[in-house]
TrEMBL record:
Protein's GO biological process: amino acid biosynthetic process; aromatic amino acid family biosynthetic process; chorismate biosynthetic process
Residue positions binding Zn(2+): E363, H435, H451
Name of the featured protein: Multifunctional fusion protein
Assembly and interaction partners: Monomer.
3-dehydroquinate synthase N-terminal domain sequence ranges: 246-357
Encoding gene per record: aroB
Iron-sulfur among keywords: no
Organism of derivation: Bifidobacterium pseudolongum subsp. globosum
SUPFAM superfamilies the UniProt entry points to: Dehydroquinate synthase-like, P-loop containing nucleoside triphosphate hydrolases
Residues that bind substrate: D43, R67, G89, R149
Length: 549
């Protein structure tokens, strides 16, 4: 259960911060007991080191000397303790501690900001006594410290847990649930940094990601995910937001100018301002649409993506691409506009049909082929289980951690490319492996083929083309066929003639003038730009894909 850094150092599973009286020690002990882990309290450690109580040390040596000891104790413990660790209320205000917590979080650690009801926390803090920082009017001092510390707590934490009205056991269970998440941080040139959270219960982060600025939230979702949108709406309303429910057509039928125009009319009629927000909850088409609405309404408002399909979790919801389709092609109208956060709640996969889950594996496999071979190894090892996915039993099955790891690894691949190249000038184009042919398939099938399935066939085409142009060995091509087939993904297509496919590939976003541009593969983990390939090879690759059908 411990967190191990890249350098091999043992780290705490979680570090708890928050105001005096928030319950850091009590809930930390409860959490540790539930998980069978050791617990440490920084204040108790400090008292053992200085040989006296903290109030006594404050009186004799002053706050500055206390903070020096506190810093030493905390930084030592962050490097060599593998349990649950609670810090004193003022500890995160020390710059060296902030830096230590930031390094801990980058190594995969969870810094929990425990938010209690202020009146409850003040009462507990007064009752406990022995708090030098509350000398004088304790309540007034508490509120003044809260206003000073809250922005720092928010900045250094990557998990926020509100405990108002909860029993200690309920609060501890919530802490466990919210720390049992994968977090992928996305940043880079031109990107407002944000986190992708992957785990059971990730939707609970909605209020924290939206923040206190918005009054109104447009919840854009599709009908098939009504159960999950009901949950999101309840979370938002409990947090005090005014929620406007907007239901859009499912899949690509929702990504049209007509649907977007209807939403703009709704937002205008209901008085949405630049300080309000959008939440997109659904599959990739829905999150693409919601992002496009957020990017265009009043030139940009805050938005959060809540993907409910495997495909959306690993692809559409992350990376800042937003857009709608036109009769001339897919995603030809859109913008690059990054979300405030992405919440990939594994609970939403429980309502996913088997075939829609499997199509998401197409994008997962793509990330393995272009960068992370471990993804392919996991897919190979669990191919039969993944192919037999059953949403009703998913959360209680051994498949849950496998899927969680696949999502996190795939998102990390995407984050790597996006962080270096937000607007698809070079490196990010590698994410389009299999997409040039795949997008043509989608359009020629009038979007009856789902995106992940089209990408699977597109990868077969790209592998064959790479082989025909002398870049990729035949063994890797055959491996591509075999793995995708074992996962239940299509490996062939015969839905149109070559000239129709070629015309659409010339319209692809990567094309330049009359020059065809593909993403090819030299070997697993090494994609390359395949520009203006031999015309006969382009045709022959198509014939190979068609002959398999």
């Amino acid at each position: 259960m411990s967190t191990t850094a890249h350098d091999g150092a043992v780290r705490p599973l979680a570090v708890i911060i928050g105001m005096m009286g928030a319950g850091k020690t009590r809930l930390g002990k409860e959490m540790a007991q539930m998980m069978g882990l050791p617990f440490r309290d920084a204040d108790i450690q400090i008292e053992r080191r200085i040989g006296m109580s903290i109030p006594q040390y404050f009186a004799q040596q002053g706050e500055s000397a206390f903070r020096d000891v506190e810093r030493e104790v905390i930084l030592e413990t962050l490097e060599g303790f593998d349990g649950i660790y609670a810090l004193g209320g003022g500890a995160p205000m020390t710059p060296a501690v902030q830096q230590g917590l930031a390094a801990y979080a980058r190594a995969g650690g969870k810094v929990i900001y425990l938010q209690a009801d202020p009146h409850e926390a003040m009462t507990r803090a007064r009752r406990a006594g022995g708090r030098p920082m509350l000398d004088g009017d304790a309540d007034a001092r508490w509120m003044a410290l809260y206003e000073q510390r809250d922005p720092t707590y928010r900045a250094v934490s990557n998990v926020v847990v509100r405990t108002h009205g909860m029993t200690p056991k309920t609060a501890a269970r919530k802490m466990i649930e919210m720390t049992d998440e994968g977090i992928v941080h996305v940043d880079g040139s031109g990107i407002e940094p944000y986190d992708v959270r992957i785990g059971e219960g990730a939707l609970n982060h909605l209020p924290d990601v939206l923040g206190e600025g918005p009054v109104r939230v447009a919840l854009i979702h599709t009908q098939p995910v009504q159960r999950h949108s009901d949950r999101a709406r309840a979370i938002l309303r409990k947090a005090g937001y005014e929620v406007n429910d907007i239901v859009v057509p499912d899949a690509e039928a929702g990504k049209t100018a007509q649907v977007a125009n209807g939403i703009w009319e709704r937002l205008g009629n209901e008085g949405f301002t630049r300080s309000d927000a959008i939440v997109g909850l659904g599959g990739g088409a829905c999150t693409d649409l919601a992002g496009f609405i957020a990017a265009t309404w009043m030139r940009g408002v805050r938005y959060v993506n809540c993907p409910t399909s495997l495909l959306a979790m690993v692809d559409a919801s992350t990376g800042g691409k937003t857009g709608i389709n036109t009769p001339q092609g897919k995603n030809l109208v859109g913008s690059f506009y990054t979300p405030a956060g992405v919440l990939a709640d594994l609970r939403t996969l429980t309502s996913l049909p088997n075939d829609i889950f499997i199509e998401g594996l197409g994008e997962v496999a793509k990330s393995g082929f272009i960068r992370d071979p471990e993804i392919l190894a996991i897919l190979e090892e669990h191919a039969s289980e993944l192919r037999a996915f059953d949403g009703e039993t998913f959360l209680d099955s051994s498949l849950k951690p496998v899927v969680a790891e696949l999502i996190e690894r795939t998102v990390r691949v995407k984050a790597h490319h996006v962080s270096a190249d937000l607007k698809e000038a070079g490196l990010r184009e590698f994410l389009n492996y299999g997409h040039t042919f795949g997008h043509a398939v989608e359009q020629l099938e009038h979007f009856r083929w789902r995106h992940g399935n089209a990408v699977a066939v597109g990868m077969i085409y790209a592998a064959e083309l790479s082989n025909l142009t002398g870049h990729l060995d035949r063994q890797t091509v055959e491996y591509t066929y075999d793995l995708l087939d074992r996962l239940g993904l299509p490996t062939s297509w015969n839905g149109a003639d070559f000239d129709a496919v070629l015309a659409l590939m010339h319209r692809d976003k990567k094309a330049r003038g009359n020059t065809l541009r593909f993403v090819g593969l030299e070997k697993i983990g090494k994609p390359f730009h395949l520009n203006d390939p031999d015309a006969q090879a382009v045709r022959e690759a198509f014939e190979r894909v068609r002959q398999q059908a």
